[in-house]
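Render this sequence as a predicted structure.
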Amino acid sequence: MLIDGVKIGTNSPCYIVGEISANHSGKISKLFRLINKAKSAGVNAVKIQAYAANTITIDSNLKDFRIPKKNSWEKYKNLYKLYEKGQTPLSWLPKIFKYCRKKKITVFASVFDISSLKLLKKLKCPAYKIASPEITDIPLLEEVSKTGKPIILSTGLANYQDLKLAYKTLKKNTNKIAILKCISSYPAKIEELNLNTMMDIKKQYKCPVGFSDHTLGKECSILAAAMGAEIIEKHFIENKSDKSLDSFFSLDANSLKTMINQIRDNEIAKGKIDYTITKNSKKNMNGRRSLYVVQPILKGKQITVNNVKSIRPSYGLHPKYLKNILGKKVKKNLLPGERLSLKNII
């Protein structure tokens, strides 16, 4: 699968997405700063959320629409007010795509309804994210699948059957599908992650997989990448003092950069299958053992375990010959510290 020409999948570097979400706090200038921070941190792409509050819910205070108590966002009272606070105005989208192209960083979006999909298509959005609450919106999935663009599907609010149906729906029109393991709680608890499921998804669906990380900190993203995640998505903010709708579970830009550097270092360390001794290791070859004379051996006398031993360094005879030479005689006097050589053995 390719996004803006970058390959995602086995044997490719992990594709890292910086999720802006509501962390722009309603200011496009701040959103642009976040884009710059993400680029400096080394992300492959930034992602925005393309919705308006009235396209995903209604402004109602009936019980069904109220935000439950003890929810991280309960102060916003109902769903409409929460989404109104968090939305990225659709009028910003042309400016965002233009800015990212100027800065040479990939941007794509989570799509929540047909109207925003139409706008994103006009803007030549290079990929689409299906957020986990939309995984059961089969009509939306059908339309997104017809775009021919890569689709990243998140599983946080999906059970096994939901995922199966969503994948089957997308598969009718496209093979460009990636699936992210996700826990839709904020912040997510590590004991609920079950990251092994990510690799089982890869086995079952034979597509790129990854991790949409809502945990605190960077460690779980680093672990997921080491386990085989081909995509990592992480919410981020400018700095630790930043306050926004999603800041309480987002990574600050400096920590995002540290996370990415660690993932890249781990990828280098994983390397390839190679049994040769490395160039720098060869400098220490004298640390291997070899056969040396440790007690004087007079000409014509036998080699024994007392006068020849396998010791460091490695300039003498290979230790594999020891059993074969025990009991044999030497051609000349040998002193302690001399390398044993087959040419000196009768």
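Summary. The longest helix spans residues 253-270. The longest strand covers residues 231-237.
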